[in-house]
What we know:
- It is built from eight helices and no strands.
- With 217 residues, it is mainly α.
- It has one domain (3-209).
Amino acid sequence: MNNQTIDAQLLQAEVAIHNATTNDAVKSAMALYGYDTTKVAENQALLDQGKTLHTKQKKEYGEQYSATDALSKSMKTADKWYIKHVKIARIALKNERGIWQSLQINGRRKKSQSGWVSQATVFYLNALSNPDVLTAMNQFGVSQEVLASTQLLVQDVANKLSIQLKETGEAQDATIKRDEALDLLMDWMSDFKAIARIALEDDAQLLEMLGIVKAAA
């Protein structure tokens, strides 16, 4: 369900509750069928909860989108250097099968973000701890300092991925809680409207005040 639909549902419920509690004719008619001020107040509480959780859900998804964009930007920068260093390592260490394995430079680079972080982290950690790798890479213009600075870029990606995953989880949780609250609100409104059609069946204008269009006979 998109946000515009939910916004419309919340607004409709708000209008119905307001008019059911401020219009004397509606109040009197509905009270005869058990929907007095106290009972209608129950729906106000459901409405308030739904609005609060809907606002929070929007906030959480905004934070998720920001975290995703930050991750994408960070990864794009780091990947440019990482791929370059992998290509150079394959040339500089072309006869070193054991080192290839330790740097994980065999085969394709992993496409998933977590897989990329894992491969890149291993590459720079093992490259910087192996003097033979440092010597070989330096001969092709990749110094220890360059590798170390790129390692920091990879760590930044890892940090941003962790944040993005957290924000994604929070956004999903906010959606579940929002939807549960809306289900309760819509269930209450369904009964309310059904009773209103009975209580106000002879007054189409009052029904319209509650957002209910009288069905054709």
